[in-house]
Amino acid sequence: MTNRELRVCGRRGHLTYAPVEPELAARLRAETALGEAWRCLRCGDWVLGPPAARGPADQAPVPPRGRALRQLTILRVLAVERVVRALVLIAAGYGVYRFESAQTALRGSFGQLIPATRPLADRLGIDLDHSSIVSAATRALHAGHGTLTLVAVGLLAYGLLELVEGVGLWLAKRWAEYLTVVATAVFIPYEVYELFTSVTTTKLVTFLINVLVVIYLMVAKRLFGLRGGREAYERELRGESLLEVEQAGRDCGDGRPAGRDPSQWEPRSTMRDKPAH
Fold first, then answer.
1. Average pLDDT over residues 226-234
2. Which residues have C-beta within 8 Å of that of residue 264, sequence separation ≥ 6?
3. Which domain holds residue 21?
4. Helix/strand/coil for 38
């Protein structure tokens, strides 16, 4: 049990479960002066009251613990980043759409602005005729409506893709992990090309983050069959569950008395609040 599990239980509440297997249930249940208590499957603490659910051990919920919980935290950080990026892209797409409808008026205003600012630019030593900013603005103002529409649709589609990734990662969906790896890896060759064109801190940091995200998801989540694939990942996840630990202890006969008051033995995870006698 770590502070991370306790914090999650503090936000979501404890997760108790009564397996129908008598010997296994006895290892997770204790009688106290205040009534029965069950061990939380997430943090390992004892929780007074009846279990939240009952059923076969192999149908018990498997809350993320240990390494799996740390991975979930990282996934949710990535999810927030994807959602923020999605909102920016969608806003940019809407901005291009609005720009297209006002393009004629903006072109006229821009045409009047350049001559008016030329004396000041000459005093400051700025060559407006060869300015990259002015050139880019001029190209945008004279871009065809079809081009701007494609740009707006592309930004909107990309933003929606990032939003789907973010929601899926937040919910820890495996399809979202695959989608994130593919969608991120597709743009890495373009980012390499951009770095060869001109190296900036922003481009370099973005490239490194995207590469690390792809490698992390593929290795840690065992995607595309790496390190045993999905079956190995699920075995690892279940292997860290409290129910599986107790099952293994029962099968191995570790000598811990089943069903006895928990104050008389030391459980594998540190208990914060032991039931009172």
1. 82
2. 257
3. 3-65+240-264
4. strand
